[in-house]
Design brief:
Layout: E1 2-3, H1 10-15, E2 26-28, H2 35-40, E3 46-48, H3 55-64, E4 70-72, E5 78-79, H4 82-94, E6 101-110, E7 116-127, E8 134-135, E9 141-142, E10 148-157, H5 166-176, H6 183-195, H7 199-212, H8 217-233, H9 237-246, H10 255-267, H11 271-283, E11 293-294, H12 300-312, H13 316-329, H14 334-347
Parallel strand pairs: 1-2, 2-3, 6-10
Antiparallel strand pairs: 4-7, 5-10, 6-7, 7-11, 8-9
Helix pairs in contact: 6-7, 6-8, 7-8, 8-9, 8-10, 9-10, 10-11, 10-12, 11-12, 12-13, 13-14
Length: 348
């Protein structure tokens, strides 16, 4: 692990893995709080690394300190649930040495019932002797090859820190120093600009990334959707629609894109167009091969929005049908509960 000022999160993370790993390595990049003190309760393998605005450099330094056959990497706000701790122990018993890496689901957000709503998949456990390296100054990635085992293990992300401008500043410092951003960094810099409301700058860098034609197809799909989001903030509806449609160059319709299109047409009060896209969202299959999935867009969200559309058309019966379907997925969702009460009031 690499950490800095993680006193609020680190203890819970280490508690969740202390009994399932054989060694814990902590690399501190300049903490000024109790992070290192907390880490000492779990391990003596604590190292300092001078921060040089490069996450990969810190990750690779941490990997260089590992001594066991396989390396598991985590962030301080990651956790393994008890169920996944047991799965990890089972994996250790059955893992054969011909496996070079093990991928695990990464649950990034959850509904009120604790069910994951957005997940990605990452190579979490890697064979040390392969000497896999991290790349990228921000949003670093581990370049892995060989025999990769796709496991049913999952890591949960419990975000506790407020969003800050650290990553944005790292990218802008690199640009000011004359560095040329590689395609992947162009995409992630655009994401940082979007997160900070710098929509014109985000549009520029998403466009640069997509026009370069060298991006990973999954990042291309994400970039089209995020570019549409930029245009939505600017109320440039036609541009947003075109950005969504451009995603079909890389794969068939995704639920996330269909829901965006449904929302755009709903905002324009084009209810029939909106309905058509939300209906498609209910029919497309979950892209299991994709590392980025917003499950809501394939389950309850389009039905919730179809309820809105049909209510505006005066079709209360169909509106109720779709709200009931949404409720079958998320019965305690505030919007679902509101719709139930609202629709009941219309029946009186």
């Amino acid at each position: 692990m690499i950490v800095k000022n993680e006193e609020e999160a680190l203890g819970d993370c280490l508690k969740s893995i202390k009994d399932i790993v054989d060694e814990i390595i902590i690399v501190d990049t300049g903490s000024t709080d109790r992070t290192k003190e907390i880490a000492k309760a779990f391990t003596n393998c604590i190292y300092d690394f001078t921060w040089i605005n490069d996450f990969s450099a810190a990750r690779n330094f941490a990997f260089s300190k590992a001594t066991k056959d396989y390396i598991l990497w985590l962030d301080a706000d990651d956790r393994l649930t008890e169920d996944n701790q047991q799965k990890f122990l089972d994996l250790k018993k059955t893992l054969t040495y011909d496996v070079d890496a093990v991928s695990m689901e990464y649950h990034l957000s959850f509904d009120d019932a604790g069910n994951p709503t957005f997940s990605s998949r990452r190579n979490r456990l890697v064979k040390r002797e392969k000497q896999f390296k991290w790349y990228g100054i921000v949003h670093e990635y581990l370049e892995v090859s060989g025999n990769i085992l796709r496991s049913d293990l999952s890591v949960s992300h419990n975000k506790e820190k407020e969003h800050n401008d650290r990553n944005l500043r790292i990218y802008e410092t690199a640009l000011k120093s004359g560095e040329k951003l590689q395609p992947r960094d162009q995409y992630y810099y655009a994401n940082e600009c979007l997160d900070h409301g710098l929509y014109d700058k985000a549009i520029k860098w998403y466009t640069t990334f997509l026009s370069g034609g060298k991006g990973w197809s999954e990042d291309n799909i994400q970039a089209c959707g995020k570019l549409a989001d930029c245009y939505l903030h600017q109320e440039k509806w036609d541009n947003a629609i075109r950005s969504c449609i451009d995603s079909f160059l890389y794969d068939g319709p995704r639920g996330e894109i269909c829901c965006r299109l449904g929302y755009i047409y709903l905002e324009r009060n084009d209810l029939l167009q909106s309905i058509s896209w939300y209906k498609i969202a209910t029919m497309v299959s979950l892209p299991e091969h994709s590392p980025f999935i917003n499950r809501a867009c394939y389950t309850w969200l389009p039905h919730l929005q179809l309820c809105v559309c049909y209510d505006r058309l005066g079709d209360t019966l169909t509106a109720k049908k779709h709200n009931d379907i949404a409720a079958s997925f998320v019965p305690n969702n505030p919007s679902v509960l509101y719709n139930q009460e609202y629709l009941r009031s219309k029946e009186k």
